[in-house]
User: Which sequence fits this backbone?
């Protein structure tokens, strides 16, 4: 899950309110273990997107996906292209239950995060 954040070494770990979703960086706030090391995952809008709006949102939206470490420049992982608004309003996500093979949450705050996701599942009566 990504949230609006800053792009600097420290600010990518802090949530940041943003009026325009097409401007600025999104990050995982906490680090993940990747084959290349401990990294924060970032997404940022790619320049040259459309200016028309659909239901208050400008689509399609193309985001570059990056992995950023303390002492290295962000590495390009790929792109995400959002073409339409999802019909399902459920935006729940649990990185402890749904991990990619080579991307895992780090141990930092792991106990607290795992309990928070478990509480969220319980509160939503969701076991997925």
Assistant:
């Amino acid at each position: 899950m990504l949230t609006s954040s800053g792009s600097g070494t420290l600010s990518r770990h802090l949530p940041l309110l943003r009026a325009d979703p097409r401007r600025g960086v999104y990050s995982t706030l906490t680090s993940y273990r990747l084959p290349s090391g401990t990294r924060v995952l970032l997404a940022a809008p790619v320049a040259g997107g459309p200016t028309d709006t659909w239901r208050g949102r400008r689509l399609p939206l193309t985001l570059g996906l990056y992995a950023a470490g303390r002492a290295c420049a962000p590495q390009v992982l790929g792109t995400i292209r959002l073409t339409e608004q999802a019909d399902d309003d459920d935006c729940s996500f649990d990185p402890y239950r749904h991990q990619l093979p080579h991307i895992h949450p780090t141990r930092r705050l792991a106990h607290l995060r795992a309990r928070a996701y478990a509480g969220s599942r319980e509160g939503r009566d969701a076991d997925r």
